[in-house]
Design a protein that fits this description.
This protein has 237 residues and is an alpha+beta fold. It is built from seven helices and 13 strands.
Length: 237
């Protein structure tokens, strides 16, 4: 890879800006100053320094966000704030995108990455990736609802959902539940409860696949996944 492309990919500016940087003698490759933007480097083997600081090449970025309400799961929008708007420039440079969508009024676990292959694997209906939600439900949630969800319920468009697991935490006028589904139809959790005559008044995603929401993350905050977490996502069957 050309050194100007390498540094541009790592957030040191446009190709033009990197060429100016190279002229300042600030860039070294394997101990030698490099001024020519056409010089090729092995991004995985060569030691690249900028201003004496080592530059570790990163191709993919993996972020775990605690999405707040009123922010949409999209890369851009003319009217609303997006999850990308919550990222620092350093992360936005990698052009990550949300893996799946959370409704505008839904909080919680959201994965962002620029790894299209992994995103496809996690979203593929054939992979049956578990997603667990916490919700407040207007209405008395019963064991009958749990049995219905376990069999699959018919949504308003005639689609019958795959089996889901309902855990009733507290049943009352406003019930507290956790629901685990293996698919991601539009407004699915809300529509599932509508199918049994109840309404979701608060919804938060707790987990996706092997990963759970980090309790240390406040609403709107995010962090990079650890290597172990990335490996767990890639190795799930």
């Amino acid at each position: 890879m050309r050194i100007d492309k390498f540094l541009s990919n790592m957030g040191y500016g446009s190709r033009k800006e990197v060429k100016i940087l190279l002229k300042t003698n600030a860039v070294e490759v394997n101990g030698e100053v490099v001024r020519d933007p056409k010089v090729h480097v092995d991004e995985h083997a060569d030691i690249v320094l900028v201003g004496g600081e080592a530059v570790a090449y990163t191709e993919f970025i993996y972020l775990l966000m605690n999405k707040p309400q009123d922010v949409i799961s999209a890369t851009e929008d003319k009217y609303d704030q997006t999850v990308i708007d919550l990222l620092d420039e350093q992360e936005r440079h990698f052009e990550p995108f949300p893996v799946g969508r959370l409704d505008k009024d839904t909080e919680g676990f959201l994965l962002l990455t620029n790894d299209g292959k992994l995103a496809h694997e996690l979203l593929s209906p054939k992979k049956h990736v578990d997603k667990t939600y916490y919700a407040l439900i207007e209405g008395l949630v019963t064991e009958e609802d749990g049995k219905a969800f376990e069999k699959g319920v018919e949504l308003d468009d005639g689609y019958v959902t795959k089996p889901a697991i309902l855990n009733i935490l507290e049943s009352g006028p406003v019930s507290k539940i956790e629901l685990t589904i293996t698919e991601g139809k539009f407004h699915q959790v809300k529509r599932m409860f509508e199918s049994v005559g109840k309404r979701v008044v608060y919804l938060k995603r707790l987990s996706m696949g092997p990963l759970s929401l980090d309790p240390e993350l406040g609403l709107g905050e995010y962090r990079h996944l650890t290597e172990e977490e990335v490996t767990s996502l890639k190795q799930r069957k």
